[in-house]
UniProtKB/TrEMBL annotation:
Entries under Pfam families matching the protein: ACT (PF01842), PDH_C (PF20463), PDH_N (PF02153)
Annotated keywords: Amino-acid biosynthesis, Aromatic amino acid biosynthesis, NAD, Oxidoreductase, Tyrosine biosynthesis
Protein family membership: Belongs to the prephenate/arogenate dehydrogenase family.
Keyword Oxidoreductase: yes
Pathway participation: Amino-acid biosynthesis; L-tyrosine biosynthesis; (4-hydroxyphenyl)pyruvate from prephenate (NAD(+) route): step 1/1
Name of the molecule in the record: Prephenate dehydrogenase
Amino acid sequence: MKGTVLIAGLGLIGGSLCISIKKEHPEAKIVGYDRSEREMNLAKGLGIIDEEADSFEQGASGADLIVLAVPVIQIIKLMEVLQRIGLKKNVLVTDAGSVKNPIMKASSNLSDKGISFIGGHPMAGSHKSGVKAAKDLLFENAYYILTPGREAGKDKLAELKTWLKGTRAKFLEMNAAEHDELTGAVSHFPHLVASSLVHTAKKAQKNFPFISRLAAGGFKDTTRIASADPQMWSDITLQNSRVLIKLLNEWKETADELLEIVERQDYEKTFRFFSEAKAFRDGLPVKSKGAIPAFYDLYVDIPDHPGVIAEVTAILAKNDISITNLRILEMREDAVGRLVISFQSHADLEKGKDVLSKETLFEVF
Ligand code: NAD
């Protein structure tokens, strides 16, 4: 597709969108704008954008597609700017914000001016931020939720999907309220709980200074998302506060019920609490990316000797298997180490499992 695309916000999401759009539409001109000159220069230096905009207004006025990939509060501010300036007649505006209600509310002012706005939320990401973390495969197989505004008809929806084809995401349409309820439950609320768990461990550290050394394995896995950007999560929490207040109150009720059954030493109800949670958790899809990201993880027990990690990665490289992540689980200090290797696909995971299990040094599961 030909045309000029302005991406405002050249971070993890904006940068990754630039790469996906350019890959699918090499003839399009990708103009980038970020309030951080450093990120903008980096994006240009890395070849992620074709041009730097002098200002948001200048970039927006010449664009056929405008993508707002800044924090949610900033998206609303940039939408206010779009209301005031002259834009191309058939311009299409979208965003990447993780909360949709306040954005869709703000979009009605754009609709009043005849501007097509389609809310967007690519449900893939990472706890990393910045353009350096951007990558083309970030959205592959992930759900990409679209919330069309009043002025956005079927043709505009099709146009946006064509622009975003290179993301290789799975598009889903819904309204903003449904989106915020859904993502509140499976994405935003878990962040609140993960950070609360870390606060609990931090408090316990006063009495047990060694707690951080013992808080390995399961604790680290459960609280991984607490390492995400505090600014972005404060923004999301306050923008989706209505849904999160409801979920926090429901959680309080669950905590009260749990407190009661534990105080009463009620084995049957305690067992039911865990087994119902396990049944639901085990039933979640694991082979495709979604609202709860699925990871193609392989666990490998390795002996403790220098160079052993290089041996594992060399075997994978020799067999042309790429990995997306590699980390060490500190299960027990005196025992063998456990590596967690993440792959891009289920097929790669199976191949990795096959080649590594042939090595007697490693135990793979
Ligand atoms: P990021 O911190 O990596 O990048 C945001 C960029 O926006 C930064 O470079 C910052 O300088 C720039 N910026 C901030 N305010 C600006 C303004 N007023 N004008 C121009 N540039 C501005 O963040 P990210 O992870 O790419 O998130 C961007 C958006 O995508 C957010 O709305 C977030 O809710 C959403 N999102 C994030 C994830 C994720 O996991 N990171 C997933 C889906 C959606």
